Amino acid sequence: MPGTPPGATKAQPLTQAERADLPPSPAAGRRRLDSSELFGDAQEIEIVHRQQVYRLRRTALDKLILTK
Question: What does the alpha-carbon distance between residue 33 and residue 23 come to, in Å, rounded to a whole number?
């Protein structure tokens, strides 16, 4: 896969059955997003919070790192 580090796999969106197996969100008003919905084919995204830019990066071991 282009742009994917060696050994990493591309995350696939959860199926409806897999989503049903997740525990419900514990608080009203909380949103749950699958990381594949955020990243698509990218390895890194930028999130703006209070006029500050944060980077959310997917590592070669498919972990997430958030940096300012």
Answer: 13
